[in-house]
Amino acid sequence: MTDLDQMLDAVRTMPTDVRLEQLDDAVLRGVAVRRDRIAARRSLALAGLLAIGVGWAGSIVPAAPAQASPVSIGMSDYAPSRLLGQ
């Protein structure tokens, strides 16, 4: 046997570190957290693009001038705006 073979045999007989047994769980937790962050960013970007699109479309579509209804349906005669004469 060469020196390298003897060194590899010595490493093979050494006890394994306890932290190596927990490594799989830590890696999978990290992957899950990263996947959740990416999904959250993607959802936020989609919501932002949708908001921009709706705002842009709303600014292009011509709107009719707003007019108040002559009869306020369901409004009490004792409402503050009625009492103040507005």
Structure explained in plain terms:
With 86 residues, the protein is an all-alpha fold. The protein has a domain at 25-58. The chain is built from three helices and no strands. The radius of gyration is 35 Å and the shape is rod-shaped.
**Mean pLDDT over all positions:** 84
Content of β-strand: under 5%
Write down the overall geometry: rod-shaped
Q: Termini, distance in Å?
A: 103 Å
Point out poorly predicted stretches. Answer: none
Total helical elements = 3
Biggest sheet architecture: none
Structural class: mainly alpha
Per DSSP E runs of 2 or more residues, the count of β-strands stands at 0
In percent, how helical is the residue content? 55-70%
Helix and strand succession? HHH
Work out the radius of gyration: 35 Å
Topology:
Blueprint: H1 3-13, H2 23-60, H3 80-83
Labels describing this entry:
86 residues; mainly alpha; 3 helices; 62% helix
Characterize this entry briefly.
This protein is an all-alpha fold and 86 residues long. It is 62% helix and 0% strand. 0% of the residues are buried.
